[in-house]
Fold these 4 entries.
Entry 1:
Amino acid sequence: MNSALIVFATLSLISANEPKLNDVISALDKATSFFESTYDRLSVDGVAGFRLLQAQIGDTMRKWSLLGSEVATQLKKLDNLVRRLNFTSLKAIKAMKIKDPMYFNAFQQVLHVDFWTLKPGWTQTDSSLVYPKVRILECFGEEMSDRCMIQLLGTWEDNGVSCQKTETCSRLMMALNCPDYSLSHQLLYMIIIEHKGCSNIFGAQHMDSKSFHIIEDYKKVFCSNMMQRNLEIENNDFPYFQQDLFLENDESGYSPREEQYVFTKHKRVKRREKHLKGGCSDHMTSVAVGALGGYLRFYGTS
């Protein structure tokens, strides 16, 4: 498709979805204002969600920049949002270094906009990949998940080596039939492998086409099962205790959390969670803005 046809197709898409896009942009403006007023109270988790949002807006702007005056007003709004998000993120990161240095050092890489590299197109879920039966309990807890993530990131100790492979992490993070939150943790594990170029996890010396295909296959399995779980939650009229999970799956990504959890047969209960002004949840806010950024890209560039 030549550039003229691409521009025409994108303009047609934006025009068709203009009411939805306006609603999303309005919601993002309000979310950014909330971020500006609470930045010094957010955890790594919360700020990572806004960094993902910043990357999603930036990707949308790059595609719209070719369209000229037709989208000038909307581009100006998005540019303003990116500037505000970046400025506030830097202030939040500065506060976080002081407030929670250990957790910050472990996961600071996810606070870089470049960490959230967004590929063109969308992964299509496949109902044939949905597990016929899932485990009753989560496959692993928060502490184990964090441990596996920081082994890949190389933040398990000062000047630690990245892409550390352990039998336990490989077994848990690539296990099938896992339910709920385990799926999004497994998905992030694959995203980190790809971002860090950890081909050794699959026994390869370089991130060749075979390694990328393995990653994409796992991501498709996890995303397909996350979508199935969301459909189940929707069919049950969004029970309160499952709304956080729904948003996390909708975001198609995961931001690490510092809260501790108790596992029960039916759900994961948070022992403690940061509640911001107005009763907003630190974590739910993070995944919600990530989901909104996904809607912006989908309605504006797909």
Entry 2:
Amino acid sequence: MTSIINVVDLSAKRVSELKCIQEVEIVEQIVVGELETGKGSNQTCNLKRAGATRWSSRYYSIKNLKKLFNSTSYVLKNMIDHGLTGKIRGQALRAFRAIKSFEFVFCLLLLEKTMGITSALCKSLQEQSQEIVNAMNLFSSTKGRLEKLRKDGWFDFFASVVSFCASHAIVAPDFNAPYLEGTGRPSQQQNCVTIEHYYRVEIFYAVIDFQLMELNTRFNEKTRELLVLSSSLDPRFDFQSFDIDNICSLVEKYYPHDVSDLDDLRTELEHFEYQFSKLEEFQNLCTLSELCQEFVRTRTPFVLIES
């Protein structure tokens, strides 16, 4: 995908050609009733390069390439026919063969599907003002949707890929035929599987399983519990998240050696719960770090400071 975008995006002339083709396509689709008109509708867009760190930038790069699939293919075909040098024509030919292959389209639509599911969680985790509980709820729904896609989503997704290929003049393979590895020589064939099995197991399931593994690794059960319990100390919105039971559970599970008596801790928490709305020093705090600094500065007798 990066190579295809680079071939088109490196030239201002090609970018301009891409925009002109989009405008023609939009007009044609409006005429036949495929697009509705309205303020702000049917705007042209450009191909987007994927960022090195922002996961969401890769998602929007995929979405734009899918939206500009026909326009990009036309620009590449024009470069093959009228490129000024052999190098340009060769780059365009390789990019055109790639974008017109069934496997490329399959992977493009699969990543759009899976990254569309994870996009909301990615955005939430990148926000400076982090709502931990909301992020953990998003984690649960993201994981659940990926698991549902793996279990029940294959046939609908596969049908969407076949439909996309049919509408863009891409030849789909015989899915019941054996899948040939490498150059197709008998000596290179290790597993006798069909093409349909290859795309379903080796790509579809593998991509989803990788996403689920990453989520489980980064947010295991203990980590999620720690984050949710810690959110009870969030001082924002006048300590709206303050929860004495959760704080005591946090201390009991993760700081058992730092607090000798949980009953004393609960008593101090109850005092603080009564006082913080009346103490100006604890108003308008935004982070747990600021809260701890205020405890130390005011010498508030709060046992958790010790840990």
Entry 3:
Amino acid sequence: MEEFDLQKFKKSDECLFRLLEVLKISIRAVLNDCNLTDESCTNLSKALGSDNNLIELNMSKNNLLDSGVIQLCTGLKTCKLEILKLSNCALTEKSCSALASVLSSDSSSLKELDLSNNTLRDSGVKPLSDGLKNNFKLEILR
């Protein structure tokens, strides 16, 4: 399946949970602006950590919070995701350490990361910068 778009269904954590198997066989997952919370990140992390086809994941404009992204990063370390969009997700500098560990992982395939319109601050950008030192795959950072 080329694209899974949660906007075509009931936009909620529960609906995403019920459709995770569909998401796993998709190449692109469009989950932006779907009323998702950190609860979805726990389930997504498990899906990303298992066999899946996802190359692009757009979770922008959801209230994921730092706790959600930290959970999500567990699954990101072992998947082949190339594009991750987390714009406007109420993230702070606390998310940056978890994202930095993904970026510095040898198994990371991320080529594009969008963290725009979050409150990362200088204290968050520092660990991200450190995580990028040995990452030659990332081409776009927003």
Entry 4:
Amino acid sequence: MKQVPSNPKLVMDEAVKIINFIKSRPLQSRLFSLLCEDCGSKHKILLLHTEVRWLSRGKPLTRLFELKAELQMFLSDTSFNLKDRSYDKTWLFRLSFMADIFQKLNELNLSLQGKQTTVFQACNKITAFKRKLNFWIICVSKREIESFTLLSEFVSDNDLDNVFEQLVQHLTSMRACFEKYFPEEENTKLKLNSWIHNPFLPTLQKPESMSNEIYESLLEMSSDTSMESLFKTTSLNDYWCRIHDEYPILAKMALNILFTFPTTYLCETGFSTYAATKTKYRNRLDADLI
């Protein structure tokens, strides 16, 4: 999503300028908040976009789109050069799509986070999203956009047919980027090690890279009902750690793959914890709360 096509990129840049026009001026921000309160709006403030946290841009775009009526009233008496954007149906059409697609990317990003997330789970999420992209391309080309909430609501109230092709191009370019960063070859490699994810499958096949001796050990373990009970009651990482003494070679092979960082979540968590020590909270007397 950092490589956004020209038209959606222009909408994104102009949306950020509109938000900054209001949020960067305290008086403007307070007046806009009062206007939203008088109108009984669901939200009373806009959200700032942070370029460093580029995945967060879905929320500011969604908030901007949901407050488009209030934005029209607020900007009508100003000399702001982008005030007409809130009346431009094509611009709002693209904005609603950008808000929806970034929201879906945010959901994907959140699903990949967690201390117990394995490379198998991350691969499954990425594969599912690529399949969704293929499905969305077909749906948008047929004008079936129920998967995009804001876009669907906007199109139901406005007759726009000449810009759907741009959405198809955008989704197609996004699919190409996903294929570039997450090639199918990597998914195939993980499938060859599917015994790690579930060694108790009844159709367990011998991996090509595994010797006969190790495979016999795998068959022995997969036939042990006590091991199967342990597998069902513990996490994947804990299971292979706990059987290390009894099946050291199998456990080592499994842990070499499982201990690979599927995302940067743990690194960023550690950095955030370290950064928190630089704040005022480090001065609290109760060390147990730190």
